[in-house]
């Protein structure tokens, strides 16, 4: 029973990943694409969590935190590039 | 860029960074020390530590981070390589082949019975080399105009 529920939720997660990929490809502006990438990372985190429950393994729990941190840093870097034009500043302007 | 003269304020991002950097560094140390029995190890631990430093570089600028952490990352990579060679050479003193590792159960005062392996020293070398190389690449790219 729980296996059916988990596979169903993986199925719906695939739908939501496809929707974010649609926004990633079609998105008219760069912030749309960055937000789609961020949402994609969160969907992948939940996919990994459900998959590790399905496999009855705790070996993937590190991956969950890892994807969270990397997705955060990547989104921040993209946001700074869109806002300022540089990712890492040499020194503050003021 | 035409937005250059707008005054920018990163208050929320810098406050979040001050907390999150410590969490990421703790997580990287956990990954580093748990590499013997569970997923993790020197490589991914070093990458996580350097990603914490990258987060600091994003929140502040290159100059401030150099003031906070006055390390020469090339020296860190070099000392990592030195430790790796020394752990290999250390096995020659015990009349065993190069890079032979061993472990021993030791009663530590707070942790109880712990197995101390010499492979951790080699992992430390990998950790230092990964941090040094990654941060050298990122700082060199960030400093060029």
TrEMBL record, chain A:
This protein's UniProt keywords: Antiport, Cell membrane, Ion transport, Membrane, Transmembrane, Transmembrane helix, Transport
Membrane topology value: Multi-pass membrane protein
PANTHER family in the record: NA(+)/H(+) ANTIPORTER SUBUNIT F1, NA(+)_H(+) ANTIPORTER SUBUNIT F
Family: Belongs to the CPA3 antiporters (TC 2.A.63) subunit F family.
Localisation: Cell membrane
Keyword Transmembrane helix: yes
Domain of life: Bacteria
InterPro entries linked to this entry: MrpF/PhaF-like
Record field: transmembrane: 35-56, 63-82
Pfam families referenced in this protein's UniProt entry, alphabetically: MrpF_PhaF
UniProt-recorded name of the protein: Na(+)/H(+) antiporter subunit F1
From TrEMBL, chain B:
Subcellular localization, as worded in the UniProt entry: Cell membrane
UniProt xrefs under Pfam families: MnhB
Alphabetic keyword roster: Cell membrane, Membrane, Transmembrane, Transmembrane helix
Residue intervals passing through the bilayer: 12-33, 39-60, 72-94, 114-138
Na+/H+ antiporter MnhB subunit-related protein domain ranges (all copies): 12-136
Main location: membrane
Coiled coil: none
InterPro entries documented for this protein: CPA3_antiporter_subunitB (IPR050622), MnhB (IPR007182)
Signal peptide: none
Topological relation to the membrane, as annotated: Multi-pass membrane protein
KW Hydrolase (keyword) present: no
UniProt similarity note: Belongs to the CPA3 antiporters (TC 2.A.63) subunit B family.
NCBIfam families reported in the protein's UniProt record: PRK12573.1
Name used for this protein in its record: Na(+)/H(+) antiporter subunit B
């Amino acid at each position: 029973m729980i296996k059916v529920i988990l596979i169903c939720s993986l199925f719906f997660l695939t739908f939501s990943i496809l929707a974010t990929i649609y926004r990633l490809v079609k998105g008219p502006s760069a912030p749309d694409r960055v937000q789609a990438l961020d949402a994609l990372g969160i969907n992948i985190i939940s996919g990994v969590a459900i998959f590790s429950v399905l496999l009855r393994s705790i070996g993937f729990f590190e991956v969950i935190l890892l994807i969270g941190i990397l997705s955060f840093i990547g989104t921040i870097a993209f946001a700074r590039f869109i806002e300022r034009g540089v990712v890492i500043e040499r020194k503050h302007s003021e | 860029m035409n937005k250059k003269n707008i005054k920018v304020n990163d208050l929320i991002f810098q406050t979040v960074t001050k907390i999150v950097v410590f969490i990421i560094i703790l997580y990287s140390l956990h990954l580093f020390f748990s590499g013997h029995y569970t997923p993790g190890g020197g490589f991914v631990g070093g990458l996580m530590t350097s990603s914490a430093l990258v987060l600091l570089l994003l929140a502040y600028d290159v100059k401030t981070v150099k003031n906070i952490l006055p390390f020469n990352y090339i020296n860190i990579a070099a000392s990592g390589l030195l430790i790796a060679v020394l752990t290999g050479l250390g096995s020659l003193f015990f009349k065993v082949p190069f890079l032979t590792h061993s472990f021993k159960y030791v009663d530590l005062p707070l942790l109880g019975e712990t197995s101390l392996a010499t492979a951790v020293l080699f992992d430390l070398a990998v950790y230092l080399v990964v941090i040094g190389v990654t941060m050298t690449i990122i700082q060199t790219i960030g400093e060029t105009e």
